[in-house]
Amino acid sequence: MRLHTALLALSATLTLVACRPPQSSGELSLKLDTTPQVGRQTLTVEITRGGRPLEGAQVSLEGNMNHAGMLPVTARAEELGGGRYQARNFDFNMAGDWIISATAEKDGETLSGWAPLVIR
């Protein structure tokens, strides 16, 4: 009985660890500047690479819930300067845990990064 309980606990632990998102955020670091709430809103992101603001890039943002079954939310972001980019009418259509991904194209190079966001 103890062996069965131990195996069940080990299995549950491995399952939970396997479901966690990766701890690396990619080549880019994202700092989200938004009020997390359900609905359409302006999403502002500060993007850095190696600690320096990423300027002059074409940036696309994508929001995904951390569970299956939801379509991603995507938007092109407009550069504000100083490594800050903004997407208007970004539709957080449900409360919960989201992952915001950024893809930036600059000088023929494609870079990416992500950050978690909780919508209440």
What does this structure look like?
Residues 30-101 form the YtkA-like domain. InterPro entries: YtkA-like_dom. This is YtkA-like domain-containing protein. With 120 residues, the chain is an alpha+beta fold. It has one domain: Immunoglobulin-like. The protein is 15% helix and 55% strand. The protein has 1 helix and 8 strands. It has one helix spanning 2-19, and strands spanning 29-33, 39-49, 52-53, 58-65, 73-81, 84-92, 96-106, 109-119. Strands 1, 2, 3, 4, 5, 6, 7 and 8 form an 8-stranded antiparallel sheet that branches. The protein is globular and about 55 Å long. The model is unreliable at 6-10 and 12-24 (pLDDT under 50).
